[in-house]
Amino acid sequence: MEYKFKNIGLDGNLDNQKVIDLVASIGNDLKNNGLDIFLHKDCIIPQQLKQYNALKRSVFFDTVDLIIAIGGDGTLLSAAIDAAKKNIPLVGVNLGRLGFLNDISPNTSIAMILEVLKGHYVSEERLMLKSQIIGTDESIVSTLALNEVSIKTGGTGYMEDFSTYVNGDYVNSHEGDGLIIATPTGSTAYALSCGGPIIHPNLDAFVIVPICPHTLSDRPLVIKSSSTIEIKVNPKPNNSPQVACDGNIAGNLNSNDRLNISIANEKVTLLHPNDHSYYEQLRSKLNWGHSSRTKKNQT
Fold first, then answer.
1. What is the CATH number of the domain that holds 184?
2. Are 234 and 162 in contact (CB under 8 A)?
3. In what order do the strands lie in the sheet containing 160-166?
4. Residue of 67, 77, 237 lying closest to 144 (CA atoms)
5. Which of 14, 181, 192, 280 is most buried, judged by most C-beta within 10 A?
6. Which three-class secondary structure state does DSSP give residue 261?
7. Is residue 101 part of a domain?
8. Pick from 90, 114, 112, 111: which is nearest to 102 by CA?
């Protein structure tokens, strides 16, 4: 059998026995189909997986031509940045709770994965954000994000005060617990829990979502992805907000610093089974179309 991809990277939390078992099962089936299987050494490789090639993370991303993320969406997010830089596509097998990114069920994983490897898939490019914390000394801390960049209060019990600018135009001042700038991919993550809209992945747009705003009229704002967003912290006692990219702390934003957010040059490529439907995914994950009467009859 001729496969489109030959060197397969398996990525998952190898401290979790369920993940280890599924990685072993998928790895064995792929190896039996003549494919080369690789892991990376970010954690201790369990005995169950010693038969596979374990590489340093940098070598891993230079070697594989497809990554299968096994676990929750966080597993795929952790691989997305390096994969995007190397133009390596990602496939997600879901062992988490929702699985908006990891959309293949473990019960059908090997059959679906083999179809993808044969070239039977839907390819989808997802926008990424580039976050830059620019200090008073013009030092720059640059980070990429697939889901969102969030700016959150650093002191418990204190509200922060942010001013936002889009393409140099003043937009608003936001007093509250913080802000989220999300991609369409991230619109169903942290931003959704804060009341933001769901944005279809094919749209070239970002959304700015206030976190617990002090003013109820401070609402989510959808803007073009070609926009440049600048955020400044207005001077206030006890303010030391943190900037996080996909949940990973990038640094603090001091009163005289600036946070610039724009579209990244890199994009993440996700491969889905041929029958993938974004709207079916929303219905399934968000339980749309199930009335209280239907739920009652199912109990």
1. 2.60.200.30
2. yes
3. 140-145, 129-134, 258-263, 229-233, 160-166, 169-176
4. 77
5. 181
6. strand
7. yes
8. 90
55 torsion bin: left (phi>0), alpha (psi -120 to 50), beta (else): beta
- In a shared domain, residues 204 and 290: no
The answer to whether residue 2 sits within a structural domain is no
d(C-alpha 133, C-alpha 237), whole Å:
21
- Three-state secondary-structure class, residue 82: helix
SS3 280: helix
Indicate whether 237 and 289 sit together in one domain. no
Do 100 and 133 lie in one domain? The reply is no
DSSP conformation class of 247: T
> What is the chain's pLDDT, residue by residue, as a tens digit (299 residues)?
789 999 999 999 999 999 999 999 999 999 999 999 999 987 789 999 999 999 999 999 999 999 999 999 999 999 999 999 999 999 999 997 778 899 899 999 999 999 999 999 999 999 999 999 999 888 899 999 999 999 998 766 678 889 999 999 999 999 999 999 999 999 999 999 999 999 999 999 999 999 999 998 999 999 999 999 999 988 776 667 899 999 999 999 888 889 999 999 999 999 999 999 999 999 988 989 865 545 545 54
Domain identity same for 62 and 88: yes
Phi, psi of 56 (to 5 degrees): -60, 150
Rounded to 5°, angle at Cα 27 from 21 and 29: 105
Helix, coil or strand: residue 4? coil
Nearest-5° Cα angle at 132, 81 to 148: 50
Same domain? 106 vs 155: no
Question: How far apart are the C-alpha atoms of 3 and 262, rounded to whole Å?
Answer: 37
Known catalytic residues? 73
In this structure, are 145 and 249 located in the same domain? yes
Domain interval for residue 201? 129-263
Q: Do 143 and 256 share a domain, yes or no?
A: yes
- For the chain, the C-alpha Rg in angstroms (whole number) is 21
Residue 1 lies in a domain: no
What's the structural domain count of the chain?
A: 2
